[in-house]
């Protein structure tokens, strides 16, 4: 399942990240924020009804907001 499709308040682990589909700056930012295979993640909130951007996630103890396009490059497995 893609991270962009993860239901709110569901716990998951990052299983794969398609780094090649992200821009260099986007990939660097996600790495700096702790996005990596095996990391626990939970979807907390999504944006407005029309765009649904950004999406807020809990990554470890941090809350991070990323765009839906970035989240679609990340595959997760439910915990």
Automatic annotation (TrEMBL):
Molecular function (GO) terms for this protein are: transition metal ion binding
Q: Which UniProt keywords apply?
A: Iron
The residues covered by the Ferrous iron transporter FeoA-like domain are 1-78
This protein is called Ferrous iron transport system protein FeoA
